[in-house]
Amino acid sequence: MSAFLTLLFRNRLAALGAVVIMAILILVLNIPLLPLHDPDVTATADRFMRPFAEGHLLGTDHLGRDLLSRLLHGTRLSLAVGIAAALIAAAIGSAIGIFAGYFGGRTDNIVMRGVDMLMAFPYILLALAIVAALGPGLMNALIAVAAVNVPFFARNIRGITVGLAGREFVDAARLAGMGHTRIVLTELLPNVLPVIVIAMSTTVGWMILETAGLSFLGLGSQPPQADLGSMLGEARSAMISHPHTSIVPGLMIFLIVVSINLLGDGVRDALDPRLRSGALSRPRATTLVKRHGDVPPTTDDLLAIQDLHTEFHVGKRNLRAVDGVSLAVKPGECLGVIGESGSGKSVTALSVMGLVASPPGVITGGAVRFQGEDLIGAPYESLRQKRGDRVAYIFQDPLSTLHPLYRVGQQLAEAIRSHDSLSKAETRARAIELLNDVRIPNAKSRVDDYPHEMSGGMRQRVGIAMALANEPDVIIADEPTTALDVTVQAQILSLLDDLRRERGLAIIFITHDFGVVAQLCDRVAVMYAGRIVEEGPTQAVLDAPAHPYTKRLIACVPELGGGRRELAAIPGLPPVLDDLPSGCAFAPRCNKAAKSCRQGEIPLQGPALRTVRCLFPERTL
Amino acid sequence: MGGYILKRLISAVPVLFGITIIVFLIMSLIPGDPATAILGSYATPENVEKLNRDLGLDKPMVQRYFIWLGNMLTGDFGRSFSLNRPVIDEVLERFNATMILSGTSFVLCSIFGILAGVISAARQYGFADKAITFVVLIGISVPSFFLGMMMILLFAVHLRWLPVSGMYAIYGGGDLSDLIRHLIMPALALAAVATGVVARLSRSAMLEVLRQDFVRTARANGVPERRVIMGHALRVAMVSILPVLGIQAGFVLSGAVYIEIVFQWPGVGRMLVDAILARDLLVVQGGVVFVAACYVLFNIAVDVAQMLLDPRIKT
User: Would you call B251 and A118 a contact, using CB atoms and an 8 Å cutoff?
Assistant: First the structure.
C-alpha cells in the first residue's frame, strides 16, 4: 500500500489532482463553518454583481444570490450525486458481474446478453429515456446515470471473476463445503475489490459530468436547489451579458473532473506493472549512441564489429549486454556466433544496424564498419539506405516478425521499393522470383498469401526472401531455424549455404546450437556474458575446444546413435549483467577456476584466428 | 464478404428487439397512471380514460408491446400530442440535422484523434507528446456544453467570426457555406471529448504496436521511418482503434443533446429534451428507438470495416 502511494505521488500530476480534489472536498465539507450567505436568498437589487464586489467574492447571479455560496453548495451537491451514482453503479454492476462470472454457463450467457443490449444504446440516450419515464428531478437523474453505468461494471467485473472462478482456491473452498454466498463473499470479493476501485476511480469523473449534464438540460436538480449543472443551465440565458455567472460553475466542473482524471490516471499507472519496467516505451528508429573512448581504426574486412559495447539502461541499472566484442567477416564467409540465451549474441547482431530497442538499449563504445565506413552514430538516412540493401537480417520467429496484415508479396515489394524505384509490375515479378529462389512452391499464388496462411517453414523462407530482396552483401541471421522442426531446419540451412556459394554472401549466423554451426559455418565465435570467450575455425573448435565453457557447451549436444551417454548440463546460471564478477565471468560455474581467474582482466589470446579467453585453457593453442 | 454482412445484419435482429423491449420496459416504469402523468392531476376522469384508450393502455402489457412493435415496423411511431404531427416525421426531420452535426464531429474526432495519438506515440516524452497529452487532458475534462458556451462567447460575441447559434441564417443564407459557418463551433465542441479519448487510445495502441517484432523487421528492411509509423504500425494499431471509434460514434450521437441545446441546433436531442419536459412520451420512445437502431446499424458497419482491416478475422 505504501509502495503504491509512493508510486502515485512520484507522478506529480496525479499528486496535483489529489491535492486539488482534496482541497475542494475539505472546502465543501466545511460549508457550515464558513461565513457564507444563504445560497437561496434572492436580492433583486443586487443582480449580476461582478466578482470581487463588496460582500460577494464571486459576485451574484440573476436573482442576486451570492455566487460563492451557491458554488460551494452546488459543488457539494454535484459531488455527492456523482459519487453516489458511482457507488450504486459499482455495487449493482459488480454484483451482476460476479453473479454471471461465478455461475457461468447459461446464467452467464443470459445475463451478459442483457448487458450487451444495454451497451448497444448510446448511453446518454438511455439516461434520457430513464429520466423521461421517471420525470425530471435530481434523484431520478442520479438513478439514470447510475443505471447506464451498470453494464460497464458488470462486464469488467465478470471478466475478472471468470478468471478467478476457475482457480484452485475457489475449488478448494467448494470442496471444503462452503456455500456459494460464502465463497463469493470471502474468496472472490476480496480479489475483485481492487478492480472495482480502479474502475470507480476512472468513471466517477464521468458520472459527475453526466449528472451535471442532465441538470444542465433542466432534467436534474430543480430550483431552488442547484447543482453545478443547473447553475450553468440557469446562467446560460444571461451568458452574453453577464458571462461570469456561467464561467464560475463551468470552471468548477472542469476543475473537479480534471483533477479526478489526473488522479485516476495516476492510480491506473501506479497499478500497471508494465509502466514500472519501462516496457511501454517505444523503440526509436535507431539505437541511441553515447560513445565513450576512441573509435578503432579502419580494417579491410567487409563487415567488422570492433570493440563493441552495448548496454541496457533500465532505471538505475546498467546491464552490459555486449562488453567489447570484435568480429569480422569477408565476402563469401560464414561466421557462427554461439552462446546461451542472454549471452549477448543477438544484441551484438542488432547493434550492427542500430536495431537494438532503445530505450533501453544504448551503444556506448566501439565501431561497426561496413566497407570501412563506421555505422555507429551514422545519420539515420545513411543507415536506412544500407538496412536491407547492403546488410540484411533474418529473424527468429517469422510469425511475429512478418507484418500480420500485409500480404507477403506486399512486404517483399516494400522491401524492394524502399531502395529501388521499380514499377508495381516489376516489383511483383521480382517478389515471385524471390519466393521461387527460396523454393516456395506455387510462388505465383503464394505471393498473395497472408503470413497467417503459411506454415512456419514457409514463413521463414519468406523471411529469407525478404533478406535477399536487395541482394545484400551481408546477411545477419539471428537464430533463423530455432522455431522450426528438424527437417525444415535442414532445408533452410542448405538453402542458406547454396545462396552463400552462389552469390558470395557473407553470413553472420547466430545460434545456440553447435550442430547447426558445424553444418554451415567456416568460423565460430563463442560468447558468454557479453564477451567472446573463444574463436576459431569451426572444425578446430569442435575437435579441440580450448575454453572450459566451449567444452561444456559441446558436451551438451546429444549425438544421434552416440549411445546412452549422460548429457552434461552446465550447472549454475549465466551471471547477472549489471553485477559481473571481476575476472572471468564463467569462473563461478567452472570446475577449473582458481583464485587468479577472479582477479583482473583476462585477455583473448592465441595465434591469429584461434583465440581463447582463459588462464587455464583445455589445451594450449 | 456479402455473406459476412448478411450474417452481421441477421445477428443484429435480436439486439434491435432487445432495444425495443428495454425502451418499452423503461417507459412502463412511469410511476402511477401515465395518462394522469401526462394530463396532470386536474384532468377529468373522462379525458384520462380516453387518453388511456388512445395510448392503448387499457390492454395487457405484452399485447401492448406487440401492437407498438408492429406499428413501428410499418413506420407508425404514433402521434405526438405536443407537436400534433406523426412522431416519425418529426424524428426523420430532426435526425437529418443531428446526423450533419454528429457526423462532422465523428469525422473530426477520428482524424484529429488518431493523428494526435500517432504523433504523441512517435514522439513519446518529447515536446509534441507532452503538449498533446496536456491538450487531450483538458479536452476530456471540460464539459462539452460549457466548452460550447465559451466558444460562443469568444468566437461569436467577442470576435464576431461565427454566428451565435442555429443551423442556417434566418434571413438569406441556406446554402452550404452558411451551413458550414453555423456548423464549425458545435461540431468542434461536440468533437472535443471524443477526440481526446481517441487520441489517448491511439497513443497507447501505437506504443504497444511499435514494440512488436514486425516493426523491427520493417526497419531492418530499410523502410523509411514515416512509412514504418504511418503504414506498418498504424495499420495494426487501427485494429484496436476502430472499436473505440464505434463507441465514440455513439458518444457524439447522444452527446449531441447538450450541443443542440447550447447552439439551438434543430436536432433529435433537442426534440427529446423538449418532449421529456412536455411529457410527450411517444416522441421520446420513438426518438430513442430510432437513434439506437441507427447506432446498431452503424456498429455493423464498424464490424465490416474491422473485417476488411484484419484478414485474420474469419468471415
Answer: no
Contacts of B78 (CB under 8 A, 6+ apart): B71, B86, B87, B282, B285, B286
What is the identity of the amino acid at B188?
Answer: L
- Give the containing element (helix H, strand E) for A523: strand A523-528
Averaged pLDDT for residues B18-28: 87
Q: DSSP letters of B104-164?
A: HHHHHHHHHHHHHHHHHHHTTTSHHHHHHHHHHHHHHHS-HHHHHHHHIIIIIIIS--S-S
For residues A121 and B23, give the distance between their C-alpha atoms in angstroms, rounded to a whole number. Answer: 10
> Which cell goes with A426?
516489376
R_g of chain B computed on alpha carbons: 24
pLDDT-above-70 percentage for chain A: 96
If contacts are CB pairs under 8 Å, which of residues 183-242 in chain B contact chain A? 204, 206-208, 210-225, 227-228, 232, 235-236, 239
Q: What are phi and psi of A66, to 5 degrees?
A: -70, 120
Ranking A113-127, A421-435, B220-234 by mean pLDDT, the lowest is: A113-127
Average pLDDT over residues A390-398: 88
B300 contacts chain A (CB < 8 A) = no
Total count of residues recorded for chain B: 315
Burial class (CB in 10 A: 0-12, 13-18, 19+), A559: exposed
Q: Which residues of B touch A213 (CB under 8 A)?
A: 143, 145, 257-258
* Residues within 8 A of A (CB atoms), B 246-275 only: 250-251, 253-255, 257-258, 261-262, 272-273, 275
Q: How remote is the C-alpha of A153 from its chain's centroid?
A: 26
Domains and CATH numbers, chain A: 2-30+65-275 (1.10.3720.10), 397-462 (no CATH)
- A65-116, pLDDT tens digit by residue? 888 989 999 999 999 999 999 999 999 999 999 999 888 889 888 888 888 8
How far apart are alpha carbons A265 and A14 in whole angstroms?
7
Whole-structure pTM value: 0.88
CA pair distance B265, A5, nearest whole angstrom:
47
B149 chain-A contacts, CB cut-off 8 A: 232, 236, 239, 246, 250
Q: Which three cell numbers stand for residue B32?
A: 402511477
Q: Is A20 on the interface with B (CB under 8 A)?
A: no
Nearest to B213 among A282, A397, A405 (CB): A397
Distance between CA atoms of A339 and A525, rounded to whole angstroms? 9
How large is the average pLDDT for residues B195-223? 92
| C-alpha triplet A153, A155, A160: angle, nearest 5° | 95
The string of pLDDT tens digits covering residues B280-305 is: 888 898 999 999 999 998 988 998 89
Say how many CA atoms lie within 13 Å of A294 toward its Cβ. 3
Cα A152 to Cα A203: distance, rounded to the nearest angstrom: 9
Name which of B138, B221, B254 is nearest A466 (Cβ-Cβ). Answer: B221
pLDDT tens-digit profile of A287-336?
A: 999 988 888 888 888 999 999 999 998 878 888 899 889 999 999 899 99
Asked whether the predicted pLDDT for residue B37 surpasses 70, the reply is no
